[in-house]
Design goal:
This protein is an alpha+beta fold and about 400 residues long. It contains 17 helices and ten strands. Bound molecules: nicotinamide-adenine-dinucleotide (NAD). The site of nicotinamide-adenine-dinucleotide (NAD) has 23 residues, from helix 7 and helix 8.
């Protein structure tokens, strides 16, 4: 991996719990330690013609294996192709108690250029990099307390996730918004429904690469249910987020922001639905697509502070937040495809539990050298439980004595 990515000795040493307590103490409050979870590399990802090694931070067994497996099956038709809308975020300013909401809306739109200029003065660095506020929208929202005038700042955040940047701008404009609307401003904050920061990915799978026509038909049936049934869609999307969150976390980004955005986007039509779709193309191949908001950055937050995140960004070889977002969308699609494929064929438990059996063995208190032996025996017997692990542990100890 070092050869492929140019990772130096120091960066490699960071991978093993590189966050020092002094650094952690500067990141959050009341620090008593650091919390580690496993970091693995998903392989086989061919994205827009480039082979990408994908670092994933997750505590869940089989996630990294499944993503790698899904990515391998996509390679037959050229891997993943991606697109995006660009790094635009929305900041909301809530004006309440406005007597004439439509008049206030016009007032704000008439002063749009002045408002954009004032907001951009707050973040000259972002503007210098080609970002900043580029539009203002006014939404009149009917609430149980009467109409509210909600101003949206549309901010190009370039390589930042943008929450701090956008929040600072929204706060700076609030007094002027009060003047223009004759209302009282309360909320001034980013919206995590980043519907102007969408990442998309597409992959095509040949039936012979994925286990035949029946598997393909099963995936299409499963996807059709997730489009219309929220109970299924929640689990379908959870599978997508297994991949998405693991990469978001590995790169030091805000997992909650991306998760809130994804789930809100899934419900944007009024009913919660799946973030991917599957269909057959003219050649009879399976086409999987994904579209979701990915608000992440390469600067800001923990991305440039956490040493492991810095090493992971280098492993990914990304040059922009936009590129990282498109990789994350591809991982979400690979993860979802692999889960659906397993679900409609052998079921996920066989693969999942044989990997999970190691966790069960550890839960039972097996020492490191016995974990793999006990896990393999339980998987072979298809009896994966803490009780069985304890029995096997005793048997092995007896054999040793
Ligand atoms: P930030 O303020 O640390 O960094 C962004 C700033 O970096 C920009 O304003 C710009 O001045 C500068 N910059 C330098 N190089 C840049 C480049 N190439 N592209 C863009 N900007 C560049 O961080 P942020 O991204 O504004 O905020 C992210 C943090 O905000 C995360 O830690 C997140 O957890 C947190 N946060 C999130 C929410 C939410 O999602 N609702 C709310 C509050 C805070």
């Amino acid at each position: 991996m070092a050869e492929r990515t140019g990772l130096g000795q120091e960066e490699i040493s960071w991978l093993d719990g590189g966050l020092r307590i002094e650094q952690a103490n500067k990141m959050v409050e009341n620090v008593i330690g650091t919390f580690q979870i496993p970091l693995g590399i998903a392989t086989n990802f061919l994205i827009d013609g480039r082979d990408v090694l994908v670092p994933m931070a997750t505590e869940e067994p089989s996630v990294i294996a499944a993503a790698s497996n899904g990515a391998r099956m996509a390679r037959g038709c050229g891997g993943f192709s991606t697109s995006s809308t660009g790094p635009l975020m929305r900041g909301q300013i809530q004006a309440t108690g406005v007597e004439d909401p439509f008049g206030a809306k016009q007032e704000i739109l008439m002063h749009k250029r002045e408002l954009i200029k004032s907001a951009n003065e707050v973040d000259p660095m972002l503007v210098k990099l080609g970002g900043g506020v580029n539009d203002v929208e006014v939404h009149i929202i009917e609430s149980r307390l009467g109409p509210m005038v909600v101003i949206h700042l549309i901010v190009d955040c370039r390589d930042a996730m943008g929450a701090n940047a956008v929040n600072t701008m929204a706060e700076a404009l609030a007094p002027r918004i009060e003047e223009l609307t004759c209302g009282k401003v309360y909320l001034r904050i980013i919206s995590n429904l980043a519907d102007k920061r969408l990442a998309r990915a597409k992959a095509t799978f040949k039936s012979e690469d994925i286990g035949g026509h029946e598997v393909m038909d099963g995936i299409i049936q499963a996807a059709a249910l997730a489009e219309v049934d929220s109970y299924r869609a929640a689990t379908h999307n959870k599978g997508i987020m297994n991949g998405v969150t693991a990469v978001v976390l590995a790169t030091g980004n805000d997992t909650r922001a991306v998760e809130a955005g994804a789930h809100a986007y899934a419900a944007v039509g009024g009913r919660y639905k799946s973030l991917t779709s599957y269909e057959k193309n003219r050649n009879g191949d399976l086409v999987g697509t994904i579209e979701l908001p990915i608000a992440i950055g390469l600067v800001g937050g923990a991305t440039r502070v956490h040493p492991v995140a810095k090493a992971n960004v280098k492993i990914l070889g990304v040059k922009s937040a936009d590129e990282l977002g498109r990789i994350i969308a591809s991982v979400g699609l690979a993860q979802n495809f692999a889960a659906l494929r397993a679900l409609v064929s052998e079921g996920i438990q066989r693969g999942h539990m044989s990997l999970h059996s190691r966790n069960i063995a550890m839960q039972a208190g097996a020492s490191c050298d016995l974990v793999d032996i006990i896990a393999a025996r339980m998987a072979a017997e298809r009896r994966i439980s803490v009780d069985r692990a304890i029995e096997l542990m005793k048997e092995l100890e007896k054999e040793e004595n």
